[in-house]
Design a protein that fits this description.
The protein is an alpha+beta fold. It has two domains: about 1-95; about 95-195, Beta Barrel (OB fold (Dihydrolipoamide Acetyltransferase, E2P)). Helix content is about 50%, strand content about 30%. It has three helices and six strands; from the N terminus they run βααβββββα. The chain has helices at about 10-45, 55-95, 180-195, and strands at about 1-5, 95-115, 115-125, 130-140, 155-160, 165-170. It has a six-stranded antiparallel β-sheet. β3 (about 115-125) and β4 form a beta hairpin. The protein starts with a strand and ends with a helix.
Length: about 200
């Protein structure tokens, strides 16, 4: 079975997240020190000194520039990094489920789940309770390589929270219906559900 995640991703991404935060905190400390130095210089200048405006202006400008540059890094980059680490933690520790289906296609349109970008793949799967086929969409991490699958491959795969964790191509069972029969079953189910609405 091909593993999408080895378990090392969480550790590496967590270290990167901590390093990113430490660098930002270090820059924040430097900016605060410079601003305090500017304010002290301003306080030590004589009353109504013509150069008193420069330390104050420097403190304002440095503070504003740092705040403006921090926004994209903290609000976008760090938040996405934090969400990705959280997803990796769930994948590592969460409940995993196994499924078997016939691969249909990959969809490279980006979908966002809990702040993380994913692609998706669709498969035909059999619902034994309703005795019919349905289409399942499984999320694929954009940071990981795409699975090597061809249309019509029978795939046994493991998911955690509908995110692909591991997969393997298995031999097609003798009694497995053709894709057109599965599609007809799905269309029949869709028509039945449309009538209910």
């Amino acid at each position: 079975m091909t593993q999408v995640y080895t378990g090392e991703e969480y550790i590496a991404e967590r270290k990167l997240q901590k390093r990113f935060l430490h660098v930002w905190l270090g820059l924040l400390g430097a900016v605060v020190a410079v601003v305090i130095a500017c304010l002290i210089i301003n306080a030590l200048l004589p009353y109504k000194s013509p150069i008193a405006v420069y330390p104050r202006a420097a403190a304002y400008i440095i503070s504003i520039i740092f705040a403006l540059l921090s926004y994209p890094f903290l609000a976008v980059k760090y938040t996405r990094m934090k969400n990705y680490v959280k997803i990796l933690k769930h994948i590592q520790d969460g409940l995993k489920e196994g499924w078997t289906g016939e691969f249909i296609e990959f969809n490279r349109a980006v979908e966002v789940k809990e702040g993380v970008d994913f692609y998706s793949m669709t498969t035909y799967e059999f619902n034994s309770h309703k005795d019919e086929y349905f289409i399942r969409k499984v999320l694929l991490d954009r940071e990981r390589p795409m699975p090597e699958l061809n249309e019509g491959d029978m795939v046994h795969y493991i998911t955690q929270g509908n995110i692909l964790v591991a997969y393997e191509v298995i031999p097609r069972p003798q009694d497995e219906p053709a894709a057109r029969q599965k599609k007809a079953s799905v269309l029949k189910k869709d028509k039945r559900e449309a009538i209910k609405l």
